[in-house]
Design goal:
Blueprint lengths: L2 H19 L6 H8 L3 H7 L3 H25 L4 H13 L8 H9 L4 H22 L4 H20 L4 H16 L3
GO molecular function, one term: DNA binding
InterPro entries: Homeodomain-like_sf (IPR009057), HTH_TetR (IPR001647), Tet_transcr_reg_TetR-rel_C_sf (IPR036271)
Protein name: TetR family transcriptional regulator
Length: 180
């Protein structure tokens, strides 16, 4: 097994475990066991748990953001597409809320590398919403971000599409009020 295969296996195991059970609840030994990567290779690839957590979140961010961007890019109503995409995500059987907010909730301002990934993810989401809202509507994008984040938190407590649908209705009201 080379470092690249080990990295992939470790990230796959870390993502499944961290998202389902939490970062602090899962130790490196459990990740090693689940991934089948020898301990020496694990620490060669990820010298500390912080590095593994940051890499897990970074990979999740790239995949999550690309998927949402893809849904929005093809839509006649980009803002509506955001909330339709959220409704589908909230309905997935393994949905456990926002991995980035979950990580921040667990770790706070602790590991700088993790906090950097969380902040970058939220900035990318803000940028995507600004593009969806249209040029010159930064205030509207800020409001849409609050709706997205609020719907995600509510859906973590009560999974299913309803929080996204409710947030979409609020977003439509905001868009009309902004003349969009």
């Amino acid at each position: 097994m080379d470092d690249e295969e080990a990295r992939t296996r470790l990230l796959d195991a870390a993502e499944a475990l961290f998202y389902a059970e939490g970062i602090q609840a899962v130790g490196m030994d459990r990740i090693r066991t689940e991934s089948g990567v020898p301990l020496k290779r694990l620490y060669k690839v990820f010298p500390a748990k912080e590095a593994l957590v940051a890499a897990y979140l970074d990979r999740r961010d790239r995949r999550w953001t690309a998927s949402l961007r893809g849904a929005v890019a093809e839509a006649a109503d980009p803002v509506g597409a955001v909330f339709a995409w959220l409704a589908a995500w909230f309905s997935e059987p393994d949905f456990r809320g926002c991995a980035f907010l979950n990580a921040y909730g667990e770790l706070g301002t602790g590991p700088a590398a993790v906090l950097d990934v969380v902040r970058r993810h939220k900035a990318e989401l803000q940028e995507l919403l600004a593009e969806a809202a249209g040029a010159g509507r930064e205030d509207l994008a800020d409001q849409l971000l609050i709706l997205v984040e609020g719907a995600t938190v509510v859906a973590a407590l009560t999974p299913g599409p309803a929080p996204a649908h409710n947030a979409a209705a609020a977003a439509a009201t905001l868009m009309r009020a902004a003349g969009a």
